[in-house]
């Protein structure tokens, strides 16, 4: 009997792709995924709402099944295509998001900090402690002015976080640089 419960609990969470997010069905499995790994956030009606980045990652991991508003299943390729329309820098951001998650860190959006992401130390959940880094994903072929670079550094410094730049190459590999203020 316990084996049946374990296999029933491993079922994939059903979710709906909206224009800018993925909303999971209201279920114990969705809530458990949120509680254990801090994927998504709980919206006003108790459903778990995932960012597009989280949605694609969870699809790739086999945790969720995504459907459109017509209840037609959305493939990974369709998901990426729709996400790129909503967010032009989606693929570069996704490469950084996925890489950091694969390394065992919790990564969340950081719009209120003026950054793309905030990253928590391993084992730290949002709400338990503050994020350690703010992260900006950048494609290796793009340019960053000194003014933009200084602005990003100021944001990190003023929010008492470390600044990390994630540079994504054409193969999707990410190289990270941590930047700090130094007083001579």
- Proportion of beta-strand residues: 25-35%
Distance between the termini: 67 Å
Q: State the CATH architecture of the largest domain.
A: 3-Layer(aba) Sandwich
Quaternary state, please? single chain
**Strand ordering within the main sheet:** 3-4-2-1-5
Rg over CA atoms = 18 Å
Order of helical and strand elements: HEEHEEHEHHEEEHEE
- Fraction of residues in H or I helices: 25-40%
Instruction: Estimate the global geometry from the Cα principal axes.
Output: globular
Can you count the helices? 6
Number of strands: 10
- Structural domain tally: 2
The pLDDT mean sits at 90
Per CATH, what is the topology of the largest domain? Trna Endonuclease, Chain: A, domain 1
Biggest sheet details: 5 strands, mixed
Question: What is the CATH domain class of the largest domain?
Answer: Alpha Beta
Uncertain runs are none
**Backbone structural class:** alpha+beta
Task: Write up this protein.
The protein is α+β, with helices and mostly antiparallel strands and 184 residues long. It has two domains: 2-85, MutS, DNA mismatch repair protein, domain I; 90-179, 3-Layer(aba) Sandwich (Trna Endonuclease, Chain: A, domain 1), CATH 3.40.1350.10. 35% of the residues lie in helices and 26% in strands. It contains six helices and ten strands, in the order H-E-E-H-E-E-H-E-H-H-E-E-E-H-E-E. It has helices at 2-9, 28-37, 52-60, 76-86, 90-102, 146-158; strands at residues 13-17, 21-24, 41-42, 48-51, 64-67, 106-109, 117-120, 133-139, 162-168, 174-179. The chain has a five-stranded mixed sheet with strand order 3-4-2-1-5, with helices on one face. It has a five-stranded mixed sheet with strand order 6-7-8-9-10. A hairpin with a 5-residue loop joins strand 3 (41-42) and strand 4. The longest helix has 13 residues, at 90-102. It is globular, with a radius of gyration of 18 Å. The mean pLDDT is 90.
